[in-house]
């Protein structure tokens, strides 16, 4: 879409800009500086904010805000006349009435302070209106950030970010009180509000009013000065100041000095699959803050609580710092030399005695692409086995399999931009607001501001379901049925995309026949959904020009997980929702590198780029490159490795970066398997539950301590850079693999991960053009990447990923979910929560997060609570045929009827949901059926403290509104529009551009 | 058969070994910078001998108290004036053109000399003598300079008056 160009004149200079832009944007894009504090965050803003009043310009002789004035052909703009200067200065003076300038002793004086830089640019020399403190004390209640009303300039950027970008709708400015300020919910202390700690407000604050507590007293050279010295010093400075220019000179010098000791390194988040990138500010090993950037491709300036604040684990005392070797009934610290020699000897011994396939390798979706590539190379080249898998087996392999069946590529069809641009979003079995928080913000924003329609099908009335235009609550495990019924109904109505099917899709007839049984009546009886609601979904898809379907574990972790994923792809194909902006299938990846681990070959049947190991030509390519014979037969997956240990055929396992002992289903069974192993190597950042079973534990380095790439849910490859050195004797996983391989006679010489990526790119056509040179700064590549570096953010625009370029409709049938049997009367649902990542091994290391969410809880519906006479705080035991857990109850209408929800974050086995889950699994991919379990519930203690403590956002009281409501500011009696004031004060028309 | 265990034997000597390691690293650094460190030690020796180190020690250990006192002392109206006046004076001097100032100061110097000679003689000049001296071209030059100065200053005062 080419936008029309318009030419205007700014200060006599002709500039070209895009139609529809504001003067401010036109100036910015042409590198003409325009003051504008509240316009400093391009990601924000519903239109414009218009609170700061520093951007006045002369437009054809009239004073107007450059941020809110659209450009017109031939417009004459000046921001240099005396009148303009006076207006801008007036705006700035009003800001400084609210903000005490003591830059040199301010932690925000890092060269990027918007208020400082604007005041300096405007050559503010004296305070026109004296600074007056507001009658409010600073709010220090939140563990991660503080609000200082005395420094707050009331620009409302934080409010915009909270209301319209993050859409948590917590912050507002109360314009009606005598001294306006930002308030949380209906004016409660921050920590008692519905604040989800995402950090948007802090990241966008143009001064020091909202600051990360980790910055305070740490960023500046003189900011740690005690208050009793600091305050008189500020007084002196103010008293004698010879004009601000001198102060700015000093503060600029100090800001420059800070650069020598504060490092700012771009990294990619290590938590979920959204793939946020940001800069980490460090002083030595101390993390001062995480600062997102508008140019970050997946997230812009957005973060969630974990990415913004959850990094304490890096410096945790509990980190593994040295290799450990099991000796008798304890672990003894060892050198790398001892540990690696022992591993080499033992694994080699098992291979020689029992054959290559007596070994199993379990890779990590937390580690980099390069590390996963090396692990599969180690397994295949050195140990000659395909027994390698990664933890996407626990979550999203069924989604990939479903997509490979139908459209050819096991990944999201487009990017987060497509999700934001869609007219209709359907979310099935997922809770993105908590599990993929930043991605969810794009949906919430589009839904709130841009009329995007939203359907959520989930057992729980989760955050997105609350907002949805339609919330479907099908019976557990029946999604395939209603999805297929919607497809059939649409075809019956003649609403299918006829041309699309004719030109681009195979097996249409066969598929349509397979739908015969999926009548609305049948679907109603199986799913419990009304026929009306299914018709409504069909109508919404029919009316939408671009529909995306997003799904996650609620779909995949079932015995029919692959089939349900397939039915989603089928529905999208039938309605032509592939290959256009705003359409497609989006399996939401759970870990930072779930996508990449599989992409780079830690799978039993695939080399990197999903190329089959049993294809002679492909295998031949790797055999030539690695100079060895490679095994042809696909190996065992995670699930099969555990079974094979029980059977006695697998005797040695090497596992890295995976807490299999807690997150695999039916963990009792998994623990028994680990006990049977002859030799078990566990490589991790922490001494995990899994590590307790190991013979050798190797200390690995987390993402901040190494270089590499992660691939997010969009298929976007992004580079992380080393922020600090590995702690103690820990090492990046890729170095460990290389050291071990070389002990076993390999001749690997990777100097850095870039060389590993170069090798992978040369071997796997899907990554042919991936090169570290193309991943510098905020640059990223969305695979497939052609040799010349061309990437493909939106798939299937011209053809699907099959030899004839056509998609395949793939008939599927419903697999009824597992039934635990007589007496197990309550359905057990489970998953993540916002604050803790997964089981919480990293996030529990954060005092702030642990303070807000110290423990998991069991969600019980009000109906069930009433029936069983249970209240919030009661202690109950849940029993399944596989095990027992004990938890305190939270009664909430998020869950319905006899359905329970148990989050998986815990540090105690007795609360671990996988004590309850079974070893049944998806029939096609062996992904455990975590979501199919029924339990009995016994009351142990009728009363107790609520597991949801003060500080938990779920107790808050959000206050939705659009934007900062600047009109309320303008209605205040003490507000005079600047153009009026300039007129009154006599700097009037007639006096003109003498400055030019 | 490997049961889950949690017992980790941390090597007792680890702290000591760690220290040894760090000392060794430090020694290397010292050896690499032998000359610089030797000079530094000599300076420290001198500082100790003169008692400067003692003063610094006292100052540093009482830094917060001293800081408070110092800032309190500075935060007084008369000090504010001093600092402000310093800024103004510096500003004033900065505006003068060096060449002109030089001429003026040289003249003033000569004037002072002449005045002091006159004072030493301790002769009284009568009114007539004063009138007569007005014919002296040197006196006329000086007087007309003073008058021009007064003229300029008056203009400056008027402008200020306009502004306030």
UniProtKB/TrEMBL annotation, chain A:
Gene Ontology terms for molecular function: 2 iron, 2 sulfur cluster binding; 4 iron, 4 sulfur cluster binding; formate dehydrogenase (NAD+) activity; metal ion binding; molybdopterin cofactor binding; NADH dehydrogenase activity
Cellular component terms (Gene Ontology): membrane
Location of the 4Fe-4S His(Cys)3-ligated-type domain: 83-123
Annotated ranges, domain 4Fe-4S Mo/W bis-MGD-type: 262-318
Domain 4Fe-4S ferredoxin-type residues, every copy: 143-173, 186-215
Pfam family name, one: Molybdop_Fe4S4
Keywords from the UniProt entry: 2Fe-2S, 4Fe-4S, Iron, Iron-sulfur, Metal-binding, Molybdenum, Oxidoreductase, Repeat
Residue ranges annotated for the 2Fe-2S ferredoxin-type domain, each copy included: 4-83
A GO biological-process term: formate metabolic process
Keyword Oxidoreductase included in the entry's annotation: yes
Name the UniProt record assigns to this protein: Formate dehydrogenase major subunit
TrEMBL record, chain B:
Tree of life domain: Bacteria
Pfam families according to UniProt: DUF1641
Family matches, as InterPro entries: DUF1641
Protein name per its UniProtKB record: Uncharacterized conserved protein YjgD, DUF1641 family
């Amino acid at each position: 879409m080419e936008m029309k160009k318009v030419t205007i004149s700014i200060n006599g200079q002709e500039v070209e800009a895009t139609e529809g832009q504001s003067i401010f944007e036109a100036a910015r894009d042409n590198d003409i500086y325009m003051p504008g504090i509240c316009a400093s965050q391009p990601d924000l803003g519903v239109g414009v904010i218009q609170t700061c009043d520093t951007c006045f310009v002369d437009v054809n002789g009239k004073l107007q805000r450059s941020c809110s004035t659209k450009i017109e052909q031939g417009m004459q703009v000046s921001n240099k006349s005396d009148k303009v200067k006076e207006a801008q200065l007036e705006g700035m003076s009003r800001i400084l009435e609210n903000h005490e300038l003591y830059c040199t002793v301010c932690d925000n004086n890092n060269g990027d302070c918007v208020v400082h830089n604007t005041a300096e640019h405007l050559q503010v020399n004296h305070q026109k209106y004296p600074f007056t403190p507001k009658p409010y004390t600073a709010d220090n209640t939140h563990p991660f950030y503080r609000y200082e009303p005395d420094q707050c300039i009331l620009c409302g950027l934080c409010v915009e970010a909270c209301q319209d970008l993050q859409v948590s709708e917590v912050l507002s400015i109360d314009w009606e009180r005598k001294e306006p300020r930002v308030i949380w919910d209906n004016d409660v202390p921050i920590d008692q509000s519905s604040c989800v700690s995402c950090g948007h407000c802090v990241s966008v604050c143009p001064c020091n009013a909202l600051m990360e507590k980790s910055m305070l007293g740490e960023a500046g050279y003189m900011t740690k000065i005690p208050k009793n010295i600091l305050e008189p010093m500020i007084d002196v400075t103010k008293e004698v100041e010879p004009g601000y220019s001198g102060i700015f000179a000093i503060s600029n010098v100090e800001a420059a000095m800070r650069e020598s000791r504060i490092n700012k390194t771009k990294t990619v988040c290590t938590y979920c699959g959204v793939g946020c990138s940001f800069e980490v500010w460090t002083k030595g090993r101390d993390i001062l803050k995480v600062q997102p950037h508008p140019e970050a491709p997946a997230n812009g300036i957005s973060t969630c609580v974990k990415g913004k604040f959850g990094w304490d684990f890096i410096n945790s005392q509990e980190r593994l710092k040295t290799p450990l070797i099991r000796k008798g009934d304890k672990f003894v610290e060892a050198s790398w030399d001892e540990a690696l020699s022992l591993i080499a000897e033992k694994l080699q011994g098992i291979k020689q005695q029992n054959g290559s396939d007596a070994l199993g390798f379990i890779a990590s979706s937390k580690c980099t692409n390069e590390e996963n590539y090396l692990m599969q190379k180690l397994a295949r080249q050195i140990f000659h086995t395909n027994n390698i898998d990664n933890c996407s087996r626990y979550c999203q392999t069924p989604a990939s399999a479903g997509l490979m069946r139908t459209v050819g590529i096991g990944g999201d069809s487009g990017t987060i931009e497509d999700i934001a641009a869609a007219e209709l979003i359907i979310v099935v079995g997922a809770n993105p607001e908590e599990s993929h928080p930043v991605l969810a913000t794009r949906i919430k924003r589009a839904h709130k501001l841009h009329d995007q329609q939203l359907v959520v099908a989930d057992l729980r009335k989760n955050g997105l379901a609350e907002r949805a235009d339609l919330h479907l609550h099908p019976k557990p495990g029946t999604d395939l049925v209603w999805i297929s019924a919607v497809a059939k109904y649409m075809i019956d109505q003649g609403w299918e995309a006829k041309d699309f099917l004719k030109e681009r899709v195979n097996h249409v007839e066969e598929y349509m026949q397979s739908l015969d049984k999926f009548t609305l009546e049948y679907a109603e009886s199986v799913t419990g959904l009304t026929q009306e609601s299914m018709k409504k979904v069909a109508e919404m898809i029919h009316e939408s020009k671009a529909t995306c379907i997003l799904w996650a574990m609620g779909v995949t972790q079932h015995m029919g997980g692959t089939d349900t994923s397939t039915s989603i792809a089928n529905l999208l194909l039938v309605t032509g929702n592939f290959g256009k902006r705003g359409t497609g299938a989006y399996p939401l990846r759970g870990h930072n590198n779930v996508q990449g681990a599989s992409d780079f070959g830690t799978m039993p049947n695939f080399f990197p780029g999903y190329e089959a190991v049993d294809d002679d030509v492909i295998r031949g390519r790797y055999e030539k490159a690695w100079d060895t014979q490679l095994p042809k037969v696909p190996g065992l997956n995670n699930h099969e490795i555990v079974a094979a240990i029980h059977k006695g055929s697998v005797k040695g396992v090497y596992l890295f970066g995976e807490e299999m002992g807690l997150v695999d289903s039916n963990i009792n069974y998994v623990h028994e398997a680990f006990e049977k192993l002859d030799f078990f190597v566990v490589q991790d950042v922490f001494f995990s539950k899994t590590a307790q079973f190991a013979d050798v534990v190797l200390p690995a380095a987390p993402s901040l301590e190494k270089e590499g790439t992660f691939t997010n849910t969009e298929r976007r490859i992004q580079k992380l850079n080393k922020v600090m050195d590995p702690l103690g004797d820990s090492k990046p996983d890729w170095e460990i693999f290389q050291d071990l391989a070389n002990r076993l006679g390999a001749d690997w010489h990777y100097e850095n991960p870039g060389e590993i990526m170069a090798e992978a790119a040369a071997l796997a056509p899907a990554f042919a053009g991936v090169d570290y040179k193309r991943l510098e700064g905020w640059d990223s590549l969305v695979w497939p990447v052609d040799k010349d570096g061309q990437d493909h953010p939106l798939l299937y625009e011209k053809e699907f990923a099959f030899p004839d370029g056509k998609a395949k409709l793939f008939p599927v049938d419903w697999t009824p979910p597992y039934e635990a049997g007589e007496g197990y009367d309550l359905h057990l649902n489970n998953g993540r929560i916002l604050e803790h990542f997964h089981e919480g091994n990293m996030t529990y290391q954060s005092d702030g997060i642990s303070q807000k969410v110290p423990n998991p809880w069991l969600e019980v519906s009000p109906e069930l609570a009433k029936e069983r006479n249970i209240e919030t705080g009661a202690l109950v035991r849940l029993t399944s045929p596989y095990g027992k857990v004990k938890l305190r109850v939270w009664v909430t209408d998020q869950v319905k009827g006899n359905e329970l929800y148990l989050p998986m974050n815990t540090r105690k086995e007795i609360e671990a949901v996988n004590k309850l889950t079974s070893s049944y699994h998806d029939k096609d991919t062996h992904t455990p059926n975590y979501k199919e379990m029924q339990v009995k519930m016994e009351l142990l203690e009728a009363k107790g403290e609520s597991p949801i403590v003060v500080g938990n956002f779920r107790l808050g009281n959000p206050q939705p509104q659009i934007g900062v409501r600047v009109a309320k500011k303008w209605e205040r009696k003490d507000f005079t529009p600047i153009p009026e004031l300039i007129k009154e004060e006599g700097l009037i028309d007639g006096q003109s551009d003498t400055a030019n | 058969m490997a049961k889950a265990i949690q017992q980790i034997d941390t090597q007792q000597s680890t702290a000591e070994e760690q220290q040894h390691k760090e000392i060794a690293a430090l020694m290397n650094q010292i050896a690499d910078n032998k000359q610089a460190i030797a000079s530094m030690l000599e300076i420290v020796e001198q500082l100790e001998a003169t008692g400067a180190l003692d003063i610094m020690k006292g100052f540093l250990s009482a830094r917060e108290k001293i800081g408070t006192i110092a800032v309190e002392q500075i935060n007084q109206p008369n000090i504010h004036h001093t600092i402000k006046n310093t800024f103004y004076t510096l500003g004033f001097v900065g505006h003068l053109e060096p060449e002109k100032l030089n001429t003026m100061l040289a003249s003033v110097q000569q004037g002072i000399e002449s005045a002091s000679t006159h004072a030493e003689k301790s002769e009284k000049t009568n009114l007539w003598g004063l009138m007569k001296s007005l014919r002296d071209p040197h006196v006329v030059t000086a007087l007309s300079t003073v008058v021009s100065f007064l003229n300029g200053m008056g203009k400056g005062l008027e402008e200020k008056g306009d502004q306030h």
